[in-house]
């Protein structure tokens, strides 16, 4: 009984701390609120969640794609769904976004919502909600996020490369990139846990290998476990366009295995390995590897912060009728 009471108190304290944290964020962005659509479109969050769960049940790669889509949206022009706009010279057309997926899921959710609540729910909110629900569908934590974002009216390909993080970035460059979005070094370590699901093309980490005169891959990155490197070389030997799971152990489940992989030197990207090799982040990795509930708790905080990067309000944005084009 005593241990049960102690556990309850710990969870209650965590909940209170999270609510205080979210309250402080909302004070800074007063145009966002929980249950923003309670009066105008009460079915909005249900329809997004249902669409994501349906898509994920038929295609287990969907959660990873939706989560990555949010990152690429928020880091360029803020969380305003500008990455969804189609056309020459848009963010979506840039080579840095060529491997993004999940667009059709967003469109299906938008179309379903438009039937019940025309011109009411922004695509930016749908992208954020879909990423949130994707994590839950993959076994991750339930996260409450505020809504009320407006859709951006501008989408420029030239904005992509200076803002997204390359997989060969040093820790310093990653810290600078996150800091420019108002995200801390702890947010960097926690949000990197997104790599516990999803898959990546071989060319995203081919800098860790080289081809010999016979065209065979050879390991040149000493930070990578040899047996894991051998597996990757076998998987990628025939083509750099093939895909491999980000997490070689539990690829379709959102858990803290990613951090245990880092401890075993099995981070897929150089940016992953960098977290374990630097004194500024190693202890955080070790803590998250040993305590999944701690990871989930910190994920809730960092994910909400990510979903509020550069949000637009009022005349700075709009509610698109179609997510792939401005009104």
Automatic annotation (TrEMBL):
Cofactor requirement: heme b; Ca(2+)
Residues in Plant heme peroxidase family profile domain copies: 31-327
Disulphide-bonded residues: 41-117, 74-79, 123-323, 202-236
UniProt keyword Protein biosynthesis present: no
Binding site for Ca(2+) 2: 196, 247, 250, 255
Catalytic-site annotation from UniProt: 72 (proton acceptor)
Keyword annotations from UniProtKB, A to Z: Calcium, Disulfide bond, Heme, Hydrogen peroxide, Iron, Metal-binding, Oxidoreductase, Peroxidase, Secreted, Signal
Signal peptide location: 1-30
Marked site (Transition state stabilizer) residue numbers: 68
EC number: 1.11.1.7
Family that this chain belongs to: Belongs to the peroxidase family. Classical plant (class III) peroxidase subfamily. Belongs to the peroxidase family. Ascorbate peroxidase subfamily.
GO annotation terms (biological process): hydrogen peroxide catabolic process; response to oxidative stress
SUPFAM superfamilies per the UniProt record, alphabetical: Heme-dependent peroxidases
Subcellular location: Secreted
Any one cellular-component term (Gene Ontology): extracellular region
Descriptive protein name: Peroxidase
Source organism of this protein record: Thlaspi arvense (Field penny-cress)
Annotated binding of Ca(2+) 1, by residue: 73, 76, 78, 80, 82, 91
Annotated GO MF terms: heme binding; lactoperoxidase activity; metal ion binding
């Amino acid at each position: 009984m005593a241990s049960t009471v102690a556990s309850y108190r710990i969870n209650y304290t965590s909940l209170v701390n999270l609510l205080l944290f979210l309250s402080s964020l909302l004070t800074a962005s007063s145009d966002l609120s929980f249950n923003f659509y309670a009066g105008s479109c009460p079915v909005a969050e249900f329809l997004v969640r249902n669409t994501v769960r349906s898509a994920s049940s038929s295609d287990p790669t969907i959660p990873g794609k939706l989560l990555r889509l949010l990152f690429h949206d928020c880091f360029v022009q803020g969380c305003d769904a500008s990455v969804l706009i189609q056309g020459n010279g848009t963010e979506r057309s840039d080579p840095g976004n060529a491997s993004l997926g999940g667009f059709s899921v967003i469109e299906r959710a938008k179309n379903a919502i438009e039937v019940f609540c025309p011109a009411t729910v922004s695509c930016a909110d749908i992208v954020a909600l879909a990423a949130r629900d994707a994590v839950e569908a993959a076994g991750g934590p339930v996260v409450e996020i505020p809504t009320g974002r407006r859709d951006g009216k501008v989408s420029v390909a030239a904005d992509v490369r200076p803002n997204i993080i390359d997989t060969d970035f040093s820790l310093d460059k990653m810290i600078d990139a996150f800091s420019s979005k108002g995200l801390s070094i702890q947010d960097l370590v926690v949000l990197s846990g997104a790599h516990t699901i999803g898959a990546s093309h071989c060319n995203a980490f081919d800098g860790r290998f080289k081809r010999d005169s016979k065209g065979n891959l050879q390991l040149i990155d000493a930070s990578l476990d040899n047996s894991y490197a051998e597996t990757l070389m076998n998987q990628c030997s025939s083509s750099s366009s093939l895909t491999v799971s980000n997490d070689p152990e539990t690829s379709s489940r959102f858990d803290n295995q990613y951090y245990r992989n880092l401890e075993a030197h099995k981070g897929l990207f150089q940016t992953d390995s960098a977290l374990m090799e630097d004194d500024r982040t190693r202890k955080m990795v070790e803590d998250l590897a040993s305590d999944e509930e701690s990871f989930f708790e910190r994920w809730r905080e960092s994910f909400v912060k990510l979903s509020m990067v550069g949000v637009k309000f009022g005349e700075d944005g709009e509610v698109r009728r179609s997510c792939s084009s401005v009104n």
